[in-house]
Design brief:
Blueprint: H1 2-24, E1 36-41, E2 44-48, E3 59-62, E4 74-75, E5 78-79, H2 80-86, E6 92-97, H3 109-124, E7 130-135, H4 137-148, E8 153-159, H5 174-183, H6 185-198, E9 202-203, H7 205-215, H8 217-229, H9 234-247, E10 253-254, H10 255-267, H11 270-273, E11 277-278, E12 281-282, E13 292-297, H12 305-309, E14 320-325, H13 329-334, H14 336-340, H15 342-352
Parallel strand pairs: 3-6, 3-7, 7-8, 8-13, 13-14
Antiparallel strand pairs: 1-2, 2-6, 4-5, 9-10, 11-12
Helix pairs in contact: 6-10
Length: about 350
């Protein structure tokens, strides 16, 4: 006992230093799977992870775009990319949303729709179909593109995507949303312009990170303290570093896109209501007829279950499968439980429908 206590006391400075390095030594997140960039724009890349030929429909992943790096869909040991490949979807691609700059702060939803269209042409040719996996806010963007181009969609997975934003609004956001609804379009637009101008013409990813962190401060504090007790376990330290390298690496959103999506999608719920227009075309979710797979987190307080599942009420798809998984928002995409159970089921269904 005395020797054990002496050893712990002697190692205290070294453990403390190792812990401090782990909690402060951030670096940019990395994609864990081999890939090649096959299409570029100033605001996005298209990454190719394919391992097979043309006998299976390609799969295109839309990562979340809420202030964090796109690499979350390919984190070591928790990779959607690897899940797809393991289920025989051998042609896998993912967008990599780049942080907005002063040169790209005017990128619009129409610009992004055009880039997505080019990506699908690269992946599937002029008339081929793709499997789409939409995560979080990448899911509403995927849904918009799918509704405008239903003939190009083989299957559609939405995970933790805010579609019907009129229900179960987060209490922290409710006063802001209700305020925008009350003051009208002119005042809302002016307020959003001021917010973007204050942030230098873009919507800062650090603002999003700060909001999400304040929603669950105790969880982050406990995680940092818990790390100290496991500081001599390399795998635990590596997982901690990987997560927080991603979590605290902010990615800015185009100011123009932010000013557009807040009123149209979150204040007036136009996508779900069927009133949304993009590039002069009405976005009608009923035009989506491809098999649809919906996944929501049972404790997700960022995109509650009903915001996701109500998608089934407004599409033209005859085949709609609904899934839930324990855990919160991030667990929907990269949680060990969801990736061990629900994701393999969905992707197996997609593979059955993907023979060229």
């Amino acid at each position: 006992m005395i020797c054990e206590l002496w050893t712990r006391w002697a190692m205290l400075p070294f453990d403390t230093l190792a812990w401090w390095q782990a909690v402060t030594g951030r670096k940019p997140p990395e994609w864990s799977s081999p890939n090649e960039v096959v299409l570029e724009a100033p605001f996005a890349l298209l990454r190719d992870f394919s391992t097979g030929g043309d006998d299976v429909a390609p799969t295109l992943i839309f990562p979340p775009m809420a202030g964090h790096a796109s690499a979350i869909v390919d984190m070591e040991g928790q990779s959607q990319v690897q899940l797809c490949l393991a289920r025989g979807l051998s042609r896998v691609y993912s967008f990599d949303w780049l942080g907005a700059t002063r040169q790209t702060n005017d990128v619009t939803i129409e610009d992004r729709m055009a880039f997505i269209g080019k990506a699908v042409e690269v992946i599937a040719g002029e008339r081929g179909k793709v499997n789409i996996v939409g995560n979080c806010q990448g899911g509403w963007e995927a849904s918009i593109w799918a509704a405008l181009n239903p003939e190009r969609v083989n299957t559609l997975i939405l995970a933790g995507s805010p579609i019907d934003t009129s229900v179960d609004i987060n209490p922290d956001l409710l006063p802001l949303i209700r305020g925008f609804q009350a003051v009208g379009e002119t005042a809302t637009a002016a307020t959003l312009r001021a917010m973007v101008a204050f942030e230098g013409g873009v919507h800062r990813g650090v603002s999003q990170i700060g909001f999400f962190a304040m929603m669950h401060p105790a969880a982050h504090q406990f995680g940092h303290l818990r790390l100290y007790n496991h500081i001599r376990e390399p795998e635990t330290v590596a997982r901690f570093r990987q997560f927080y390298d991603w979590y605290f690496h902010p990615v800015d959103m185009s100011g123009a896109l932010f000013r557009w999506c807040i009123p149209h999608l979150f204040v007036h719920n136009e996508l779900y209501e069927g009133n949304l227009e993009v590039g002069g075309r009405r976005v009608d979710l009923r035009s989506i007829t491809a098999p649809l797979f919906l996944l929501a987190g049972e404790e997700d307080d960022i995109t509650p279950i009903r915001q996701q599942m109500h998608m089934a009420n407004v599409v033209g798809s005859e085949r709609v499968e609904k899934y839930t998984t324990p855990g919160g928002h991030l667990g929907v995409f990269v949680g060990h439980r969801s990736q061990a159970t629900v994701w393999p089921q969905m992707l197996a269904r997609v593979r059955e429908l993907s023979d060229s």
